[in-house]
Amino acid sequence: MIKSKSYYTIGVDISCISNPITGIGKYAVEIIPEILKISPNVHWIFYSNSVPLDFLNLNHPHIKFNTFNIKVKGFRFLWAQILLPLFLRSDKVDLFWSPTHRFPLFLSSRIKSVVSIHDMTYKYAPHTMQFISRFLDYFFIPFAIKRASCIISVSNSTARDILVDFPEAKDKLFVIHHGVNNKQVINLSPSPTIDKFYNCEFILFVGTFEPRKNLLRLLQAFARLPSDLVSNLKLLLVGSNGWGNISTHQMVKNYNLEDKVEVLGYINNSDLEFLYSRAKFLVFPSLYEGFGLPIVEAMKFSTPSLTSNCSSMPEVAGNTALFIDPLSIESIQKGLECLLADESLLESLRFNCIQRYKDFHWPKAAFLTLDIFNGLLEGPK
Length: 381
What we know:
- By secondary structure, the protein is α/β, with parallel strands linked by helices.
- 40% of the residues lie in helices and 17% in strands.
């Protein structure tokens, strides 16, 4: 808990909290309410260039919102670089936190600052990014790393990636893993689209439909599976459309998988948890991840993963997953066959999930994050 001064003012850019919620948005939605529960003597100001989701179901005495509804992306960029620093200065903010990995260029040097770095995709998997996003990250992530008073990395893997190019950041870099909502919610009334899978055997993919998530190789591998393994099995694809003009429906059609693959698109969290709880396993063959939140979300329901042997995924999945080479269709295929044919292995991985998911705890992540804020605000001026 922050103390000493009667109160501090912390500003947070919550522009990432809008529909559809992706990984960084989920991070903010989950961790911010937990931080607010343990910071009663902090004044919070939440800034956003778009209308945020109504996610703050809290009883906190000091909260202010300063939000806009800017629909043009270029204007959102100008808001973040020009208007946001002006608001932070006029509101006399003591500390600014960016839950995303970008940072205002003209932030006052008087204001302490924290940035959360979720991945280094722009360097380690640039071919999986849209050109404009890669260009902006190439400039803004190094700037944020150099300028921030403290850096939060969401995994040891991402921290190592940061230190390769920025070894001078070591003393201000802290690893705080994502959490998972430990509250077990049994969805007794999923939407009709989801309810039809109640008595269906399926495996589940969760992620944005974009090149980095490796959907093409997954579908190619799935199409090669022996018919006896998939006679009563479906592959469900859950996620919002990203960049790259990926036509998921067309890919499914190209491999004659219309009867075996269902493209569900973006679904609400309640329906997603229902699918996690019913899936045989999660298949997550991403080319690169800074963390890999779906792995832990599935783990909560004792659902193991088939995931990649690179970046953060072995660190996060631990002994709850079977690992594959995401660049090899044959490796993905063999992994699918192994988990579909070996029920004893699947059961062993399920058992491991029961203990491991408890290592990922949002209240713990919130406490550690607030402790960083405290160290900056109460440390040497």
